[in-house]
Amino acid sequence: MHSGAGQPSGKTDPGAEYPEKSQPAASSDPKPTVTVTAAVDPPDLPPEEKLNALYRMTTSLAQQMEKSRISEFTELLHSPFRLIWLNILSGTARGLGIALGFTFFAATIIYVLQVLGALNLPIIGDYIADIVRIVQHQLELKTF
């Protein structure tokens, strides 16, 4: 067996041919190392076993693609008007959800501030009362 590029040379040290990749750089902080191994085609397997392994891998890949619904995505890319319509609908729903959520959140904050203002806390009560007064004044100015 000859020692070509990318072929193991029979040395005992697995990183002897490419020391810069196998030895981590000396630094003060430890970094995680990742080992990548490639599937090796053993030459002693009969052709039927190789075909069975290839069939299993192909079937697994097909099942993963079906799970990811890639066919539906590619169909969607081929119909641009449907893609635009779905994006408009999702954008409208997202905007409506944000508006309703912020309204509920702001109303809750104002309610809590009013309750805290009613407690007449020394410094916080005056500050909260000013904020509530400003918000109520702004709400009275807005007539829809």
Q: How does the major sheet shape up? A: none
Calculate the mean pLDDT score and round it: 75
Total strands: the figure is 0
The shape is elongated
Strand content bin: under 5%
| Helical content (DSSP H or I, runs of 4+) | 55-70%
Q: Which regions are unreliable across 5 or more consecutive residues at pLDDT < 50?
A: 1-27
How many H/I helices?
5
Radius of gyration: 33 Å
Which structural category fits the helices and strands? mainly alpha
Helices and strands, in order, run as HHHHH
What is the CA–CA distance across the termini?
A: 87 Å
What does this 3D model show about the protein?
The chain is elongated, with a radius of gyration of 33 Å. The chain contains 5 helices and no strands. The relative contact order is 0.03. 64% of the residues lie in helices and 0% in strands. It has 144 residues and is mainly alpha-helical.
Characteristics:
64% helix, mainly alpha, 5 helices, single chain
Blueprint of the fold:
Elements: H1 19-22, H2 47-67, H3 70-77, H4 80-118, H5 122-141
Helix pairs in contact: 4-5
